[in-house]
Design goal:
Blueprint: H1 2-12, E1 21-23, E2 27-29, E3 32-39, E4 44-47, H2 49-55, H3 64-75, H4 81-93, H5 111-119, H6 126-145, H7 147-158, H8 161-188, E5 194-197, E6 202-205, H9 214-240, H10 247-262, H11 271-280, H12 285-300, H13 310-346, H14 349-368, E7 374-375, H15 381-390
Parallel strand pairs: 4-7
Antiparallel strand pairs: 1-3, 2-3, 3-4, 5-6
Helix pairs in contact: 5-8, 6-9, 7-10, 8-9, 8-10, 9-10, 9-11, 12-13, 13-14
Length: 392
Amino acid sequence: MTAEVDLDAFFGARPQVREDLLISPAVIRGPDRIHLLKVRGGKVFEVSPKEHFLISRLDGRRSLAEIGQEYADEYHRRLGTSHWSRLLWQLEQRELLAGPGRERPPVPPGRLLRRVTSGASWVFTRPSAVVIVVGLLVMYAAVVAQATSLWGAALPALGDWRSLAGLVAFIYVSGMLHELGHAVAAVRFGCSDIRINLLILSCRAEDYQFLESRRQQIVIAAAGGIVNSLMVVPFAIAWFSGWAPNGFVAAVVLAGSVQALVNFVPLSPLDGYKVVSHLLGAVSLARESRRFLWSRARRWFGREVPEYAPPSRTALAVYGIAWHLLVGFSVVAGIAVVGGLLDTLIGPAGYGVATAAVVVVLSLWFAAQRGLPRRIGAQPTSERARDARSRH
């Protein structure tokens, strides 16, 4: 009789996750489909769709019995006390369940940032976006077509300290506005807890990765590079129209274009990598694409490898090949450019120094790559494999 009462009490409980718990839409990580969890200022965790189904319903209103019935209707399987106990224990250990003093209310954007966002709201309309994108494409096409002329005109300015100082100032101010662009786009789409420091060129939006709309995530990630590009526009107009065909203007057009376009290279931690990740709805894209390519090689030798759904296979294969080509090109270009500059100072040994420097930078870059989010729950690997196969 006591056990029955205890079970009734257990399944009658109505636990609640923290009100500040952020839950992402479904994203892919390699062969798996997952959701990300995070509380404000906390760590990021990942859960499976089944775990997300349960956690998203822990609202303090529905009992475990009611949620369990919904789960059984959806997945044709009933959860016992051990499943619930393990899940609730893990949520409690990570302080993801509601409790006294745990909730952190969102920090609203500052007044100045809200005013800037309000004044720039017209930029986020569809007609404005089309005009901006088309205009920038035309500008960059002209820059590429006249790159030789621009470089020839810019060379004298690069040897003048006043022009160099002005160029550095332009790049720094453009970097500041780059971060402001990210912040304005984040505020525009409802993000909070935006930490921006223009002096050290950093901007973090606590909940932008958890927005429901991929389009909004892409716009936020791309906003900085768009702002950099817009900074080049008046100088490009001055150059191509003949109003100011001097070396400094040419140098700004070239340097500003490189600064803007490099941001869109799809390598971590650049904005282009985030844009591609949001476009594909994926996390840990670089790591997982390399893992996928190596799994194909292992499969040729009869090794057991994870099953990937067709959309994931295509995305990971294309990005994985592109990643290797981009990294290889960057290494060769870095050695050629740095080695060429050092060759004029120390001779052929400059290429050896350049190679060593590029290897060190590449090693530090690999070491700085962020790890995977921590898992919550204990879905067996075999069950995850069955879920992956069922998606084919």
